[in-house]
Amino acid sequence: MEVCAARAPGKIILAGEHAVVHGSAAVAAAIDLYTRCSLCLMPLADDEAAATLELDLKDPGLTFSWPCGRLREVLLTDEAAGAREARPCSPDRLASIARLLEEHEIPEAKIWLSAGLSAFLFLYTSILGCRPGKVTVSSDLPMGSGLGSSAAFCVSMSGVLLTAAGVVTAVGGISGEGMEWELVGKDDLELVNRWAFQGEKIIHGKPSGIDNAVSTFGSMIKFKKGELTNLKSSNPVKMLITDTRVGRNTKALVAGVSERASRHSDAMASVFNAVNSISEEVSSIVELAANDEIAITSKEEKLAELMEMNQGLLQCMGVSHSSIETVLRTTLKFNLVSKLTGAGGGGCVLTLIPTMLCNLVLEKVIAELESHSFRCFKVEVGGQGLQVCQGGCSYFNGDVV
Ligand SMILES: Nc1ncnc2c1ncn2[C@@H]1O[C@H](COP(=O)(O)OP(=O)(O)OP(=O)(O)O)[C@@H](O)[C@H]1O
Ligand SMILES: C[C@@](O)(CCO)CC(=O)[O-]
Ligand SMILES: [Mg+2]
Q1: What's the average model confidence in pLDDT over 369-387?
Q2: Do residues 178 and 55 share a domain?
Q3: Which residues does the UniProt record annotate as the domain GHMP kinase C-terminal (predicted)?
Q4: 211 lines ligand 2 (CB under 6 A)
Q5: Which of 100, 122, 130, 277 is the most exposed place for a label (fewest CB within 10 A)?
Q6: 59 lines ligand 1 (CB under 6 A)
């Protein structure tokens, strides 16, 4: 029984969501909330009929299982076609995967899971073929809320599958959560990122690639047309995240913005262009070294103003929501600036926490936000990306794997 695990972080977008899909720059950072996947590969059993692929999703609390023979029959594949290069999921393969999912009763209230399940079946069978195994997924991230849960799912899944395939190897240790997590080298990360992007395409339709990139590589990045620049921030950027708990779906929101762009192409091109300038300015400001109180305050004031401008343009794109507006109004009472993060339409909102803000005020802000039934998170910004645990990781989320 071969065992390995991987974890990948969620993200916040400081500037540029949606516009990044249309070629503008955006700025994003990893946060210390993770999705973890563990994989237990079963030996190729003598009892062929009993061999299954199992997926245990801890957060929705659902498990799925497919007989390996049925996977082979429907997907017309056995051996993985090679994990060393990422391939897109063809429309025919996606249709076959949909047939496999129809054989499961997914509760109507959790039907949004089918996109993630399709991405799982595509990644697993493309990387490992129809081998029997058990995959367990658990996450700190609220799903479908703008913190990149789909990307963290695809990155951690690709990471664990490619590690099991022997294509990705760990290079060094850091520890956390009682496990020996290890970092992965640059070329291997590139490969994981390319596979995760193919998974994101199944979930998002037309992703820019920023979410999987920041989840894979970590840190704070500027991203434009697939190009990634690492931003070296000398002063930590402190953000409060508020989850409005209003569910939404990134694929539909991205499609909505594209439709608006095709109806009003000149106006929307100007909006995307303005967002590009905001993201460029945000990326220069985060890299500015600020050594004293005055410099830090001026840096934060500029960031706050740019966030406010970006939020206005997101409203122009049609992706704000009354719950987001409630967060904006609530934080403004305390002179704090907020903007939505991720795809909007509900989901999460970022509030810039100035270094000089006293804890008592922050606690009051949180209490008022939570009185609206929102949920607040204080997160560390700009940490590590994908990490893996090869063999030896005997314990995962309470499950022996
Ligand atoms: N831990 C998980 N287990 C199963 N499926 C997941 C998990 N995390 C994400 N998903 C899949 O990803 C979908 C959510 O992706 P979506 O892109 O809509 O939101 P998000 O990634 O959280 O937000 P954003 O894209 O705005 O950052 C879920 O509906 C599900 O299909
Ligand atoms: C809305 C979007 O810009 C960010 C979602 O986190 C979509 C994408 O870039 O793929
Ligand atoms: Mg997503």
Answers
A1: 95
A2: yes
A3: 301-353
A4: yes
A5: 277
A6: yes
- What's the CA gap between 331 and 137, in Å, rounded? 34
- Domain containing 319 equals 231-378
- 372 pLDDT above the threshold of 50: yes
What's the number of domains the chain is made of?
Answer: 2
**Catalytic-labelled residue, pool 92, 211, 266, 292:** 211
ipTM for the complex? 0.99
CA-to-CA separations, 228 to 221, 244, 289, in angstroms, rounded: 6, 30, 21
How many whole angstroms separate alpha carbon 85 and alpha carbon 67? 26
Shared-domain flag, residues 133 and 246: no
Scanning the structure block, which residue is given the tokens 């703008």? 146
Tell me: do 167 and 136 sit in the same domain.
Answer: yes
Q: Are residues 264 and 139 in the same domain?
A: no
Res 398: pLDDT:
44
Q: Both tokens of residue 283?
A: 């990326």
pLDDT at 395 over 50: no
Among protein residues, the one with the nearest Cα to ligand 1's atom 13 is 150
Contact 156 CB / ligand 1 (< 6 Å): no
* 188 has catalytic annotation: no
Distance from residue 127's CA to the centre of ligand 3 (Å): 22
Q: Which atom of ligand 1 is nearest to the CA of 145?
A: 22
Do 265 and 159 belong to one domain? no
Q: Would you tell me the crossing angle of helices 186-204 and 250-263 to the nearest 10 degrees?
A: 70
pLDDT band at 48 (very low <50, low <70, confident <90, very high): confident
What is the pTM for the complete model shown?
Answer: 0.95
Least confident span in 232-236, 246-250, 266-270, 283-287: 232-236
Q: Whose CA is nearest to atom 3 of ligand 1?
A: 57
